[in-house]
Fold this protein.
Amino acid sequence: MADNSEIIPPPHNLDAKWDACLDLTLRRFIYSSLGGAFGGLLFFRSPVTRWASVAFGAGVGIGSAYTECSRLFDGSSTKSAAPKISETPVQDVQDS
């Protein structure tokens, strides 16, 4: 029974959340940087604009990872806020 008291429930396990955020951040940073590099090679001729597209892709990846990690640590499981639903019934308007 002493072993069961040491098990931390999933919503409060910070180690798992940090591992998930680190994994998500690295993946999105690498994939979006590669996407920016591919787009830079495809669309631009100047090395400066190619590096700028890599930097833009990396920024997009880090920004999206930050957003997902903040949602993970806040505990909300949906991607957007749930709309408030009114408890009063809506009356149907009939054409007369």
